[in-house]
């Protein structure tokens, strides 16, 4: 009893395990399908399933695992294992094929029976054949035409150029093909060509040229040409601008020295000792030069009493002449803006009950000056016209003193030498 119980338990367990398992699936080789009724693989009749299995007027012959396309005039004999193949009646020679059910036969007839064009290659397939064109071409009827790879998917990074049966890649300017003949990499023109005259900076697909200071790029964008800074403005230099390759410099006229980069400063020859005045002469510096004047400016009947002052002591000889003359010198620049106050005259002695008047006695024939009375004891010489130089003006300024209580009048003369420089600086 114990043995029977163990057996029944084992059978029951086997049944339960079968119910828990998934359905079993079967796979057949190509050309066969599984028959669930017979539980075996059976041949697929491709001739019945495929409407147009064979081309070119060929007849479809099914066999195990495949089918054949044979001429309609071919005589076919099918025998079973062990049976002799009956011989046909004498007829004109035609291809004869014996198919054995235990073998899969593929008859190589396509090399004589295919319709491939001369530029096409015939490839035998199971039960048929196919015509293929060379690489880079595609079929168009019975002919092979070029396949435009550029119109299809290609691997060119920039541009694709189609050719007969092939294609190649091109890169944009500033790039070159990589070793894979598809990608494009930047060309460092600065290392390869050194195209720039001064400085080259590589860019992706291009390059940039820059010039040294004082130069600018020419129209060809690689050459450098000098910048004429002097043509920018007349204010680049106070006197004269001298252009040079890549730069410029300012120059000053004789009697001046350069101050900084553009201004001209007068050279005081009297202080530097570069004058040629004699011992009895006084050196007077003016803008752009110097002049030598006698240390004793007094002429007869005047005698020198102090520096630059002359007095006439003889009443008979000085009749109608100012009793004293004071000599003064001043320098002004040419083309000075007017009106401009340039010199002040003032009485050295002040007396009570007196009235002073001032006038230009000589040297103002052109009306360049005007004497404006400032107070009872002073007056201002005003420049009324721009003066050109170099030129010297000698102007006599007279002060007339009226003594109100004694009804007495006296005068004194100041002889002012105005030296106008050659330039406006």
Question: What do you see in this structure?
Answer:
- Residues 1-17 form the signal peptide.
- This is EGF containing fibulin extracellular matrix protein 1.
- This protein is mainly beta and 425 residues long.
- Among the domains are: 32-69, no CATH class; 149-186, Laminin (Ribbon), CATH 2.10.25.10; 189-226, Laminin (Ribbon); 229-266, Laminin (Ribbon), CATH 2.10.25; 302-421, Cadherins (Immunoglobulin-like, Sandwich).
- Helix content is 8%, strand content 42%.
- It contains five helices and 33 strands.
- The protein has helices spanning 2-20, 46-49, 110-113, 189-192, 269-272; strands spanning 32-35, 40-43, 59-63, 66-70, 75-79, 96-100, 121-125, 128-132, 137-140, 143-146, 159-163, 166-170, 175-177, 184-186, 199-203, 206-210, 215-217, 224-226, 240-244, 247-251, 256-259, 263-266, 281-286, 289-294, 302-306, 309-312, 324-332, 340-346, 354-362, 369-373, 378-383, 391-403, 408-420.
- The strands form 14 sheets. The chain has a six-stranded mixed sheet with strand order 25-26-27-33-32-29, with no helix packed on it.
- A hairpin with a 6-residue loop joins strand 17 (215-217) and strand 18 (224-226).
- The longest helix is centred in the N-terminal third of the chain and has 19 residues, at 2-20.
- It starts with a helix and ends in a 5-residue tail after the last strand.
- The model is unreliable at 1-21, 90-94 and 99-111 (pLDDT under 50).
């Amino acid at each position: 009893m114990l043995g029977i119980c163990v057996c029944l338990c084992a059978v029951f367990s086997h049944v339960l395990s079968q119910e828990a398992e998934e359905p079993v699936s079967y796979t057949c080789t190509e050309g066969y399908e599984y028959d669930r009724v017979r539980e075996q693989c059976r041949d697929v009749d491709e001739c019945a399933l495929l409407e147009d299995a064979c081309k070119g007027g060929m007849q479809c012959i099914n066999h195990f695992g495949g089918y054949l396309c044979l001429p309609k005039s071919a005589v076919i004999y099918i025998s079973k294992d062990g049976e002799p193949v009956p011989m046909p009646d004498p007829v004109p020679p035609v291809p004869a094929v014996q198919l054995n059910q235990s073998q899969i036969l593929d008859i190589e007839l396509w090399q004589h029976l295919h319709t491939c064009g001369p530029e096409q290659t015939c490839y035998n397939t199971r039960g048929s054949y196919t015509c293929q064109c060379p690489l880079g071409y595609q079929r168009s009827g019975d002919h092979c035409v070029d396949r435009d790879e550029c119109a299809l998917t290609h691997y060119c990074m920039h541009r694709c150029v189609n050719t007969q049966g092939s294609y190649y890649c091109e890169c944009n300017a500033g790039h070159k093909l990589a070793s894979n003949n598809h990608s494009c990499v930047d060309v460092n023109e600065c290392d390869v060509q050194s195209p720039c005259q001064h400085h080259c900076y590589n860019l992706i697909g291009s390059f940039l040229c820059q010039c040294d200071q004082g130069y600018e790029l020419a129209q060809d964008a690689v050459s450098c040409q000098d910048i004429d800074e002097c043509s920018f403005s007349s204010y680049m230099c106070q006197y004269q601008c001298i252009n040079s390759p890549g730069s410029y410099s300012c120059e000053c006229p004789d009697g001046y020295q350069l101050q900084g980069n553009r201004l001209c400063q007068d050279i005081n020859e009297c202080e530097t000792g570069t004058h040629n005045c004699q011992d009895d002469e006084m050196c007077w510096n003016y803008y752009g030069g110097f002049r030598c004047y006698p240390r004793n400016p007094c002429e007869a009947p005047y005698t020198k009493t102090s520096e630059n002052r002359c007095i006439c002591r003889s009443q008979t000889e000085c009749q109608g002449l100012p009793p004293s003359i004071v000599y003064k010198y001043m320098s002004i620049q040419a083309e000075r803006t007017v009106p401009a106050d340039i010199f002040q005259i003032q009485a050295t002695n002040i007396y009570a009950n007196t009235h002073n008047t001032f006038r230009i006695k000589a040297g103002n024939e052109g009306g360049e000056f005007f004497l404006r009375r400032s107070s009872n004891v002073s007056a201002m010489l005003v420049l009324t016209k721009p003066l050109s130089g170099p030129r010297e003006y000698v102007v006599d300024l007279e002060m007339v003193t009226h003594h109100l209580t004694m009804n007495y009048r006296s005068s004194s003369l100041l002889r002012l030498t105005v030296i106008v420089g050659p330039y406006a600086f």
